[in-house]
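Chain A, query sequence.
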Amino acid sequence: MDCGDMLDEIILAAKSDAVLAGLYDKMLEYARMYLYIKMRQKGCDGLGELNNLKDEVRAASAEMVAYCEGKHILPEAFSYDLDLMAEELDKMSQQGSC
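Chain A, predicted structure.
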């Protein structure tokens, strides 16, 4: 299962699960902020803002994935690349998929 498939499963399940919908919205918000700051700081050291936000994105995604694994929406021990997930979330939201 790739990142896009994973997100499709989550979006589908979130339509009938308010808790998951909230976790997804939180992850999407953090992903958008992270990508914006990552793009803005390209080539700069920054003041740790990007690292702090990446930690927030990691925590939000871990919470959402753990919930999905517990509900058997995703297979247990599912692995994903955080940057790829954030980029895919942003792309899907711009296309109106979520």
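Residues 3-93 form one domain. The mean pLDDT is 85.
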